[in-house]
Structures are given as C-alpha cells and as structure tokens.
Amino acid sequence: MKRRVFLSLAALSLPAISVAKETSSKKVWKYQTQVLVVGGGFAGLSAAVAALRAGKKVILIDKRLWLGGDGALSSGIFYAADTELQKKAGIKNVSKDDYWKQICAGTDDEPLAKVRDNSRNSPVYFGVPKHNPDVLRRVSDNTTNVIKFISDYGIEFLPLNPAKPFQLPMLKKSVQQFPAKMIEEIKGKGGQILLNTKALKLITSEGRVIGVQAEQKNQTFDIKADAVILATGGFLDNKYLMKKYKGFWSAAPAAIGAVGEKRAFDRTGDGIMMGREIGAALEDMESMPKLAGRMEVGRPFISWTIFDVEPAFFVSPKGKRLLDEHVGRYAGCSLALMREKEPYGFVVFGSETFNGKNKGRFNLEKGLQEGSIFRGDSPEELAKKVGISPEEFSKTFNRFNHDAANGKDTEFGRKDPLFRPLKAPYYISTKGYPGAYKTEGGLEVNERLQVLRAKDDKPIKGLYAAGSTCGSITARINDAVSSGLLAGAEAAGSVK
Ligand SMILES: Cc1cc2nc3c(=O)[nH]c(=O)nc-3n(C[C@H](O)[C@H](O)[C@H](O)COP(=O)(O)OP(=O)(O)OC[C@H]3O[C@@H](n4cnc5c(N)ncnc54)[C@H](O)[C@@H]3O)c2cc1C
Q1: If one looks up domain 291-436 in CATH, what number appears?
Q2: Pocket test for ligand 1, best of 14, 167, 222, 232 (most atoms within 8 A of CB)
Q3: 312-315 and 346-349 beta bridge pairing
Q4: Which of these CATH numbers, 1.10.760.10, 3.50.50.60, 3.30.300.20, 3.20.20.70, describes 1-289+439-496?
Q5: From the CB of 214, is ligand 1 less than 6 Å away?
Q6: Residue 348: CB within 6 Å of ligand 1?
Q7: Are residues 37 and 47 in contact, defined by beta-carbon separation less than 8 angstroms?
C-alpha cells in the first residue's frame, strides 16, 4: 500500500532552512567534492568510509563539534544475521531468512517490516507495512557485512546470548572506539571533515542535486558535490514535525540523558526538511517514537536492556508487573508505564544477576554503592527501600518466583530461558522513567538508497539518504551502518 505524506510548505516555520532555489551558473563554490556526506553519526561516517574505499573524494560535514551522533551515546546493541561471531558462538538458525522472518513477525525487538502504530492505546509496535520490503531486505541482509566491517577494525562485542540470537551487543568501550576508527580511516584516506558546519539547504540544477548551502560561524557558503548523502538523524526535537506526525507521542518526555539533565535539543530532522523542500517523498512519519527508560541525574543507569540477558522482572509503583519483560524489552517497559499512566518503574533481580557475567555491563556494584540499587533478604525489605507497598510487591514477587519455578507465567505468558526464580539476596533498582529516544520516519528511498521524488516516485538525481533520516528502514544502529555503507557505495558508483 502506498502512503504519501505531503507537508504544507506554507505551514513550515523553520528559520534555519530556507527554500531551495535552482542555482545560477555564476555560483562561487567554497568547496568541491565528489561525495558530500551531511551528518557524522554512525550512518554518515560509514557512508564516508564506503565512498572513500571506492576511491572517491569525500567531504563530511556535521553541525556539532563532535562526531558519532546518537550511536556514540547508544547502548551499542546491533542486530545482524549470518555473521562470523554467531558462527563462532555456535548460535544456530541465524540465517538472513531466519532474521527476516523473526524480525518481520515482531517476536524480537520492533517488527522490521511494520510501521509502528502511534495510537495512544497501541498494545504493540504494529501497523501497516513500510512501502518497499525490498529496501528493508537489502539493508537487513547487509547486516552480515556490517558486523564484518566493525570487527575488521578490531572492535569487540560482548559474548552472545542464545536467548537473543540476532543480538550483538558491543563492549561499552567499543561504542566510542567504532566512530573513532571510522574517523581515523576517513582522515587517513584524505577525506575532509568540517565540524560546526550546518547544512541549510540543497542546491539543485535542472532537477539534480549539485551541492549544499552550509553555514559555519555565521558564514554561509556553498559546497559542490556530484552526490549528496543526507545522514542528519531523526527529528525528536523538531516540535513542528513531532506535533504534526507523532500525535499523542509528541508530548512524551525525551529519554536522552537523565531526568533533570540539560541536553542538546538538536535532533531537528534537518535532512528530512531539506529533502522535502525539493519535493522528496516521506515515509513512516507517523510511527511511534521508540521509547526507553532513564534515571535521575547523578544515579548510575540500570538499563532496561537487562531484560534481554538476565532473569529479572519489572514492577510499577503499585508493585505490579506490567508485561512480558523479555519480549517487550526496554521499549515495552516504557510503553507499559505510559499506557498505565505510571510515572516510573523498578527492575527486580536476584543474586545470580548481581554476581553474574553482566554485572559490569549494568554497573551493578557501582549502583549499589551509589544508591541506584538496593539489596534485601526478602521482598518486603526491597519494597520498603523504594517506597512501594510491601504487601502488593510480595504478592507479585512470590507469584513470579512460583511461576518461574513451574515454567509457566500465569500473568503474561513469558516463556524465555531467563524466566527463572530469583535467588536471595534480592535487588531492586531506584525509579526509572519512561520517554522517547529516537524517531523512525523520514525520506523515502529505493533499494539503492536514492531519495525518491513525491510526485512521480522517481529518484532525485544526486541525492541519497542513510540512517534515521531515511524513513524506509529502521533507525537501529545496525540499519544506520548498513544503509550508510550501501549509500556510500551507491553514491560513489554514481560518480563518473
Ligand atoms: C541513548 C541512546 C541509546 C541507543 N541505543 C541503541 C542501541 O543499543 N541499538 C540501536 O540499534 N539503536 C540505539 N539507539 C539509536 C541509534 O543510536 C540511532 O538511531 C542511530 O545511531 C542514528 O544514527 P544516524 O547516523 O542516522 O543519526 P545520528 O546519530 O542522529 O547522527 C546525525 C548526525 O547529523 C548531524 N546533523 C544533523 N543535522 C545536520 C545539519 N543540518 N548539518 C550537518 N550535520 C547535521 C548531527 O549533529 C549528528 O552528528 C540509541 C540512541 C540513544 C540516543
């Protein structure tokens, strides 16, 4: 089914980006390149590397003073199929087809082929299909190469978890090492990086994109390029787009950083706006933003991704469980709190987790020392430490342990191998709050990552998109890198 989203240009009030004009022949170009990458997150950096490896001249610009984007702040959890790491770990049934089937069905993480429903009572991430399954398929099949690309830099991943066979979480330090390695390669191959340089608009001639107008320290100038790749991220901080497309969810607090923390508000969907201004099609703009948990300022964060790898459960301030934690993951926990109108929730686990292999990954020792985790010998003791009803919490706790011992979750039908009784002493986290941390939806592309024109579905010559700027794929890091590599190679291939 084809859905087209038409923005009313007249309604846009985005002062930073003026409407693009066809260029005059006398234009003065401050820079000239073969491939121009706009945005230096995981998508933009990998696109730049791919274009350089194809032997092209590349300039990458970023409006910030630092590179790596949200990927460098992320938990580093990649999804991929048919990789050497999975083979070495003896993990079975992880072919590209298995991945495609599982992720499309939505039985792990958000369903790949679906637009996430943005309705207030949405029970799951579900909805109508994305426009072109072939685009999703190409990007997801390429995840095999993504993990090779990363591993070839010597970047390490955590041991794999058979309960989440497609998940490849990076070591904590790898999350910063990976962009650093890409930057090193870009510089080493002669790519030029301009920081503090914001793209304002696309420059076109005879319907083709031929460059970008950019701004640095209040000076505007033009960069000529044979191909432009837009990799400027999502639009969580663009109030206009959020209100127009995300409905109820536009009011969700942002879960980037801790509660009460100052943060940058610059995820403004610039590439999406620039593309749209020259007539690009948009896709999946209405999908629900992806939700996550966050802590209060000054408390070590106990990520709700703990439900992927440890026997643990999640309770509301009323002491009740809200979902199958393993299937719902961190996003499901956040969604359940918002749906139940609960302000926060707590993670509960036992000594097996506290002393187990993931204690470093989730800062458990530090959390106990610094007051974001509490220990108790009984459920009542735990409940008192965080101010929830000991009676209600004990009922929930005892039911969880009893069900887990019997292998039957009588509340939410949880079936995973981590559904195991907790052993004393027990632990509970401090409050974790729900919020949105990334948007899906953006420019529509074809399988070659070429941006399509709204009026005729034809590629706009010279224009590519990658990562969360691109509405035709997911905004996960694996798809950011995968689409970046593909867009970089495609853009390079288009240059004579
Ligand atoms: C806290 C957190 C944890 C996460 N954890 C995970 C995870 O474990 N697994 C996962 O799959 N995903 C995760 N994500 C999501 C994932 O990190 C992002 O969706 C992904 O990294 C997006 O990459 P990107 O390159 O498309 O965009 P971004 O990372 O947003 O990069 C865009 C870049 O473009 C630049 N830019 C923007 N506008 C302009 C302009 N006009 N001119 C020049 N430059 C511009 C920005 O400064 C930025 O550097 C997480 C996100 C966050 C915030």
Answers
A1: 3.90.700.10
A2: 232
A3: antiparallel
A4: 3.50.50.60
A5: no
A6: no
A7: yes
Q: What is the pLDDT of residues 253-307, one digit of tens each?
A: 888 888 888 888 999 999 999 999 999 999 989 888 889 999 989 888 889 999 9
pLDDT of residue 12: 34
Which is nearest to 307 in space by CA: 331, 326, 328?
A: 326
- Consecutive 10-residue averages of pLDDT for the chain (496 residues): 34 39 71 98 99 98 98 95 97 92 72 58 56 91 97 97 92 96 98 98 97 98 98 97 90 87 92 98 90 89 92 98 92 90 97 96 94 96 98 98 98 95 98 94 97 98 98 94 98 96
Nearest CA to ligand 1 atom 30: 233
Nearest CA to ligand 1 atom 12: 476
Instruction: Report pLDDT digits (tens) over 155-202.
Output: 999 999 888 899 999 999 999 999 999 999 999 999 999 999 999 999
- In 3-state terms the chain splits into helix, strand, coil percentages (rounded to 5) of 35, 20, 45
Q: Give the chain's count of helices (H) and strands (E).
A: 15, 18
The pick from 274, 440, 477 for probing ligand 1's pocket by mutation, whose C-beta has the most ligand atoms within 8 angstroms, reads: 477
- The Cα–Cα gap between 126 and 108 comes to 13
Q: Which residue has a Cα nearest atom 50 of ligand 1?
A: 74
Element housing 274 (H / E): helix 270-277
